[in-house]
Amino acid sequence: MLRLIGNSLLRRRWQSAATVLGVALGAGLLLAVVLLYHGFDQGLERGRQRLGADLLVVPSHATVDPDNALFAGSPLNVYMDSKFVDEARKVPGVRRVEAQFFTQSLHLECCSVGVETRLIGIEGQVIGRLAGMSPEGRARLEKDEVIVGSELLGGIGKPGALIELLGEIFRLAFRLEATGTALDYSILMPMESARALAANSDALKPVWQDAGDPHRLVSALLIEVTDPGRIKEVGRALEDLGPLRVIRAADSFQRLKRLMDGFVFVLAAAGFLTALGGVAYLLGHFSSVAWDRKGEWALYRAIGATKARMVELVVGESTILALGGALLGLPLGYAVYRLAFARLASHNAFPFVAPSGVLVLTAAASALALYGLIGLLSAAGPALRVAQLEPALTMAQGDID
Amino acid sequence: MNPPSQILLEAQNVSRIYGSETILDNVSLQVRAGEVTTIVGPSGSGKTTLLALLALLLEPTSGRICVAGRDAAALSDRERSRLRNEFYGFIFQSAQLVGALSVLDNVLLPAFLAGKARESRTVARELLQRLGLGARADFLPHQLSLGQRRRVALARALLLRPAVILADEPTNDLDARRASQVADFLLELPSEGYALVLVTHDRQLAERAGNRWEIHEGKLTPPVGIPDSSEPDLQRILQNSQQ
User: So what's the ipTM on this one?
Assistant: First the structure.
């Protein structure tokens, strides 16, 4: 019977090819949408986890979008006096204060890292949170150790590897998993090491002439409050300390989440509609096949096909077309996803976590199974109608084209 | 005198009514192995309907169709399908070839449906050879002439070596030479053990085939010398005489 189906499909090669192509586009689009949806969803979740603070304090003149700094890992090249660290710790309702120090881009300045790279000085629990983003992660960093983003160093990025940064030698502690954000292109090190490196850099000296001694500067404060109900009150108290801008993480997160939720919803809807479109397309196709080839089906019945065999023939054809189309479409969908991912990664515009190989394979297998099921279900109705055809019809009809 | 051969197919007082129109009226007929049964009648007389009933493609409104002694009404769809596949060979009015399949695959159609395509391939090629179509096995039906298509349909009907060949106007639309070739082939089949039921309005073909039943406005008249088996008593007598 498979041969009969195969012959029939091959002889109607243009019709079959058109159906396979239609399914391939649907299945490919579905896979791309599912992978992007998952990437954004995980990216948002990871952004939330990475934050680990209730408030972000930056100098009031900071022009960089703080949402991007919070969730996409993009550093702010702004500085404020480090005295605000101690003053912030004294504000009632503040449980913990951690400072971060960002330097200028190291583009063309670094001899061992060949792409635009950011240096970030970090301390305390931030290291612990970053440790959770790598299987080799650990909660402590020595002065000469660094953490690097997933897109840096390539194959040589193993723990213990030596890296030269602005003339100093560092050891790699661990490498972060991909986030799809600027963090993937960042190097993180202990605060004091970052400050020392910045201070000794000839290229950065003009910056410090304006901003002051980097050892007395910080870029941002991450603040955790004792009572989430008092966030507004604590925020106001922090703003009273000086020319500071306080960003509530919850507001910022919610704003970004709303934006991303909208985007993710569009993706999810696109995926759903794609699958639904696949059903409608195949249903239409096989309904028309059932009708157009009525004479052929009646002949099969007349010369001995049981009703069950008729159902097998129609459903078999549809399932082969659907699975064939899906098999062709999945690599296309993956290619589309990779293109989209490459563009997103180059802009660092959204938090995005690239799905693992296992997840990609699982999604592909699921899409394949889904399209197999769609093929089966969409042909079920027409197949049952075909099975009910009167075999005597064949006595009254002319030749079958 | 040779003993009468086995009854393969029997219509007993069969009627078929569409709405208020009686297409077949109390028809009785027996088809025996190795014999030709010719049914002659004008268009619209009920020939094709009778053939469809004998072939289990239609259900009678009343009466019985018996296949090898079994009442067809008691058969399941699977059993009827299997009989249509293996017991009958069909030659329809038009060749009824599937345009998307090659000549060889068209011949193999009954075998595909029976799951016997592999072992039937050689037989299919032999039949095509015998019918003068060996070189056209890979052609598509639209590349054949009308007569060639009719011969492909013949090969398809014979593929699984059925017991009964049902031929509906097999020489229709053929020129005299082609019609004669097809008729020659068909009329040799009973000598090979096939039962041939030949439905035609071609008087010449009917004369050659013999055992000619006349059908007119749904009523079937047996050949001269054969009593009307629609009479139950006569039928019983006939059956008894055959035993």
Answer: 0.85
